[in-house]
Amino acid sequence: MHTGTRAPLNSIAVLALRRHTVRMRALAVLLVAAGVGFGVYEFYLKKMPVSDPGTASTQAISLTGVRMDLLQIAQAERSFIALNGRCASMDELISSQSLTMSRPERDGYTYTLECSGLDFTATARHAGAPEGSPIRYPALAADQSMSVHEVN
Question: Do residue 39 and residue 66 come from a single domain?
Fold first, then answer.
């Protein structure tokens, strides 16, 4: 009879131990998954190739948008010259709705447009990076040839 009362206590202890073991395994799996996720982030996402030398991979989207804006400005200027025989200013292109943008800027970049006769250059410049920062903000330009290139 004494062993009969002990069996239920023993099975309760085993059940509690099993629950504890399952929880610890779940915690261990969660920690391993977090470690693997951090490793993937560190080795792959943080070290992704950049679109411009010296820029951060997080700038790629912004720089792509700036390049597309410069091409849009160049196309609008070419169309304006074809219709009017003269260059237009950025404000004139925006107010005439030749450009879909409402302001001559994006993500810290400011756009300017310089004309010389029927030749033009649309330039995007960003304020300099803070001193000691490894990030740089390239100045980009597009002209009537519709090519975007880095300028000083």
Answer: no
Instruction: Tell me, yes or no, whether 61 and 103 share the same domain.
Output: yes
Report the length, in residues, of the chain.
152
CB 104 within 8 A of CB 90: yes
- 32-36, 56-60, 142-146: segment of lowest average pLDDT: 56-60
Residue 37 lies in a domain: yes
Q: How far is CA 41 from CA 44, 47, 81, 102, 107, in A?
A: 6, 9, 48, 37, 25
Is the confidence at residue 51, as pLDDT, over 70?
no
Residue 146 placed within a domain = yes
Comparing 12 with 130, the larger pLDDT belongs to 130
Write the DSSP symbol of residue 57: G
Predicted pLDDT at 47: 57
Inside any domain, residue 33: yes
Confidence of residue 9 (pLDDT cuts 50, 70, 90): low
What number of other Cβ atoms are within 10 A of residue 143's Cβ?
18
The neighbour count for residue 66, using CB atoms within 10 Å, is: 24
Which residue range is the domain that position 68 belongs to? Answer: 57-151
| Sequence-ordered list of residues with C-beta below 8 angstroms from that of 44, at least 6 positions apart, any chain | none
pLDDT recorded at residue 1: 47
